[in-house]
Amino acid sequence: MPGKRVLVLRPDELSPNDQKMWREIRTESAAPANPFLDPAFTVAVGRVRPGARVAVLQDDGSPVGFFPYERGPLGQGRAIGLGVSDSQGAVLRPGIRLDARGLLRACALSSWEFDNLEAGQGAFVPYAAEELASPVVDLAGGFERYTERLRATSPSFLRQTLAKERKLARQVGEVRFVYDARDPGALRALMGWKSAQYRRTGRRDRFAQEWITRLVGLLGESEEPECRGVLSVLYAADRPVAAHFGLRSRTVLSWWFPAYDRAYAKYSPGLVLQLRMLEAAAADGIGTVDLGSGPARYKESLKTRDLRVYEGAVVRPVPGGAAHWLGREPARAARRFVRNRPRLAGAAARALAEAGRLRGR
To answer: Which residues form the BioF2-like acetyltransferase domain (predicted)?
Structure first.
């Protein structure tokens, strides 16, 4: 190990100086200021997930890196907030070389699973099973420059979305957008719409998991400038018709939980919301909106480029590691096989939707 000591702490045991050093090291690395890799996210997860831990890599008593993770049965580990975290990995001072399995041994982990490992994580990338595209929107040049590009690359998308916004205003009522809303009713509506979408598409309802609902509540109350929740709401006739809850730092906004009221689907309120969010984010100093991995037509229309993220696991040759492999890797391989074959992927999506429809009866 590069440091002479690895100290394992609960997130709430991180001192203010630890958090300050974490942010300084992250800045030194020149990695994007993604809020999921800020210490405030790890501390929030620690309040709702008892297995959350942080390995502090020290050299001569000074922190040179931080590795947030969750520990489960048999020492099986996972990225902090796995399932809802869109950027994962270790925060290391530049030049620090890390042995992944040695780090897991120091943390008493038999495995460590990730599904959105950020690029540049040299110690973990060799253990990736798949490389994925994570689309982003660059806003550093301002919203006007972005819309100029959008008109050139997706002219019908922009034109049709703006036309639907005008139609929504004519047929429903005055359209109003709030970028950073403090509206508990709108947040409850968003969770309801999103839960219904998960069930309708046959996917696991994340908001049926108490820890995720609690995590969203905690982050929504956060005042940390490098990691706080932002609820954006599109209203028509003073009624929420679309909303998004995401995480932001000073310069990066992570697209997290978007949803809309299906009663207004013909107006594409979700797309109207996205355009208004991008405009407001650019005015608020956001340079990058990270749309997250996973295929979606609207992401292809909005993006300016792709980041690379990785899915996989580091597994040590111990009984707990074997248990992880048997429990996870065959299913992961099957998903990868389907995802890489568009016809099969389409059939799988239709099957999930039909399963969701039957469950909803």
So the answer is: 158-300
Distance, first Cα to last Cα, the chain: 55
Give CA angle at 247 (246, 251), nearest 5°.
120
Q: Are residues 317 and 265 in the same domain?
A: no
The SS3 call for residue 191 is helix
SS3 content of the chain, % helix, strand, coil (to 5): 45, 25, 25
pLDDT for 332 equals 53
Q: DSSP code of 16?
A: H
Helix axes 155-171, 143-153, angle to 10 degrees: 110
Q: Write down the pTM of the prediction.
A: 0.88
Quickly tell me which residue has 């990691």 as its tokens.
Answer: 227
What pLDDT does 353 receive? 45
Q: Strands, DSSP E only, in the chain? A: 5-9, 52-59, 62-71, 76-79, 91-92, 111-118, 128-138, 175-178, 228-236, 239-248, 252-260, 288-290, 305-315
User: Rounded distance, CA 252 to CA 242, Å?
Assistant: 22
pLDDT tens sequence across 177-215: 999 999 999 999 999 999 999 999 888 999 999 999 999
Burial of 29 (0-12, 13-18, 19+ CB in 10 A): middle
Helix, strand or coil, per DSSP, at residue 125:
helix
- Let me know whether 258 and 172 are in one domain: yes
Residues paired with residue 70 on neighbouring β-strands, in sequence order:
52, 78
302, part of any domain: no
**Token pair of 58 as six digits:** 């020290």
Q: 320: which 2 tokens?
A: 């707990």
Instruction: Report which DSSP code applies to 238.
Output: T
**Do residues 144 and 61 share a domain?**
no
244 plus 267 within the same structural domain: yes
pLDDT tens-digit series, residues 126-170? 999 999 999 999 999 999 999 999 999 888 999 999 999 999 999
Tokens representing residue 154 in the block: 């997706």
Q: Could you give the angle at the alpha carbon of 54 between the alpha carbons of 220 and 71, nearest 5°?
A: 95
